[in-house]
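Model it.
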Amino acid sequence: MAKVYFAPARAKKWNYHDSMPGKLERLLQGIGLMHYFSPDEWVAIKTHFGSEGAHRIIRPVFLRKISDALKKIGAKPFVTDTVRIKGLDYLEVANQNGINHLSVGAPVVLADGLYGNDNIMVRAGEILGEVAVASVIHDVPAMVVCSHVKGHINSGYAGALKNMAMGGVSSAHRTCGWKCGRGSMHTIGEGEMVWDAEKCELCNQCRDVCPLDAITFRDDELVWDGDVCWRCGRCERVCQSESLTLPGEDKRFMHSLAEAAKAVMSTFEPGKILYVNFLTEIQPECDCMPAADVPVIQDLGILISEDIVAVEQASIDMLAAAEPLPQSLASDKQIRKGDNILGKLHHKPYLLQLEEAEKLGLGARKYELAGI
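Modeled.
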C-alpha cells in the first residue's frame, strides 16, 4: 500500500513551525529527499506558471522551500513548465506571478524551448500512439512534480496526472504540429465546433481566450480554423451566451491523460519522481485561464507521495469530504457538503483518469495517510 504524507493547512499556533511553509519543510525532511535524489543531480521542479490574470498558482514560497531542500542535499534544482503561450510571454507571466530565479532560488526555464517545439517523441499507448515529451523533462534524471489541485474544463479534476500529461508534453512538434503534442489529448474523439449566430452576443471572449488564434470574426460572423484548433474547450467555457458547442468524448480523453502521463514517466528511472499536491486556493478552473475565480473549497493542505495514483486518490478523497465555500461558484450552483463538488461543477467522470492510470501500472489507489 502506497504511503501519502499529509500536512494540514490550518495553523493553530502562531509560530513558524505551524505555518504551511514550515510544515512543507518538515514533510520534505520526513520523506527523506536523499533517498530519491543524489548530490550534483539535476532535479526539475515541475509546476504551472499560471496566466496573465490567473494568479492562484502554487505560491513561489513553496517552490522555494522545495528548491532549498534539494540544494541542502547537494542536488541542483531548477523550476520549469512547458510553453502554453509564446515562450517569452510565458516567462514574463511567470515573473508577474512571482516565479523567477530570485523568488524560487533556482533557474526558471522552459522545458520545451522558447517556441514550444523542443521535444522528443515517446510511445504513449493505444489511443495516442506517440506524444512529444518536452526535451528538458525527457532528459532530466529526476523531478519533483508540484501540482495545484483544482477543477478543469476537460478533466473535471486537475492534479498530478493532468500536470504530468498536459504539462510534460509540448504544445507542438516540429513536423506534426499540435496533433503530436498537448493537443493530441484534446482532439481525441472531438467533433466540429457549432456556432449559434442567434445566441451570440459578439462579445469576442471566445476569440480573446483562444491560445492559437483559431477564432476570428468577419462581418459579425464567426470564422473557426478547425485545422489550427486543438479543441481545448476554453472558447465554449467562456461563452456566457451558450452560443458555442464543442463536442467531446470524456472517456477517451481521461484515458489519453493516463497514457500521456505514462509516456512522460517512462523517461525516468523508478523512484526518481516525487509528487507534491497543493490543495490550496482550489478554484473551479485551470491556471491556464485568463482569470481566477474565488476558491470553491477551503485550503486543505499539502500531500506528498512517490505514487502518483495514490496522491491523486488521497486528494480527491479530501475534496469529497470538504464543504463548498459560500460566495463561490459552488454556492451559485447550490452545491452542498457531501456533494461531488468538482463533479457537479464540470460534469466530468474524472475518476476515470485514476482508474486508467492504475490499469497502466502507474500506481495504486489504495494508500496509507501519514502525518508529520
